[in-house]
Amino acid sequence: DGGITQSPKYLFRKEGQNVTLSCEQNLNHDAMYWYRQDPGQGLRLIYYSQIVNDFQKGDIAEGYSVSREKKESFPLTVTSAQKNPTAFYLCASSTNEKLFFGSGTQLSVL
Amino acid sequence: QKEVEQDPGPLSVPEGAIVSLNCTYSNSAFQYFMWYRQYSRKGPELLMYTYSSGNKEDGRFTAQVDKSSKYISLFIRDSQPSDSATYLCAMSALVGTASKLTFGTGTRLQVTL
After folding, report:
1. Separation between Cα atoms, residue A34 and residue A23, nearest integer Å
2. pLDDT per position as a tens digit, B67-76
3. Torsion-angle region of residue B3: left (phi > 0), alpha (psi -120 to 50) or beta?
4. pLDDT digits 0-9 by tens, A42-72
5. What is the C-alpha separation between A39 and A35, in angstroms, rounded?
6. How far does Cα B94 stand from its chain's mean position?
């Protein structure tokens, strides 16, 4: 089936630890995105990538890092510098202006 | 002031009712307008997409855009319990090949039997 796969579904982070969220798509989309969703705040853009080996910061990039070594993959690392990482993280890819989302990863702090 | 304003609800309606969901925006550069439906702890699902002022209909759903008033709406006819979800409006000004969407905070809808 074509789509966007995020893993894991749930992730727990200890103090000072870096964690990586996986996002894979087989839709052959060039652009990929990471959003963070907090209750009452809607979706906020963390990073986006238009092509392989290129990415841009979104509105809330501090404490996060990404890579885009393959068209299909856009992993997000939540670093220890992100002091409030608990949130629902959504990966998306797009064809033109339509975004399609994965099923999300809930990250919580232990 | 936020670029996109959306009433968070919750909005509770009886089954069969017509639902009206709305967003206002301030950025004149927005060209594309979308409505997403999100069930609890799931990814948003694209419901409606439009880029011009006027109405677009798809089954029980109608999206309406008024660019002069910077106002968009989603109407749901004959609402069903399965429509209970959070509805997010989103809009964008295309940047290169990427689409940087700006989202509303979402309106939670509950359709009761």
Report:
1. 9
2. 999 999 999 9
3. alpha
4. 899 999 999 999 999 999 999 999 999 999 9
5. 13
6. 19
C-alpha A46: how far from its chain's center? Answer: 7
Best probe of the A interface among B34, B105, B107, B108, by most A CBs < 10 A, is: B105
For B39-58, what is the mean pLDDT?
92
Tens digits of residue pLDDT in A34-46: 999 998 778 999 9
Question: Exposure pattern of A35-57 as b/e (b: 16+ CB <10 Å)?
Answer: bbbeeeebbbbbbbbbeeeebee
CB contact under 8 A, A48 and B100: yes
Confidence of residue B84 (pLDDT cuts 50, 70, 90): very high
Whole-angstrom distance, CA of residue B52 vs CA of residue B42: 29
Tell me the residues of chain B between 24 and 83 that have a Cβ less than 8 Å away from chain A.
Answer: 31-32, 34, 36, 41-46, 49, 51
Size of interface A-B (CB pairs under 8 A): 68
- With 0-12 CB in 10 A as exposed, 13-18 as middle and 19+ as buried, what is B33? buried
Q: Are B100 and A55 in contact (CB under 8 A)?
A: no
Tokens of B72: 């968009």
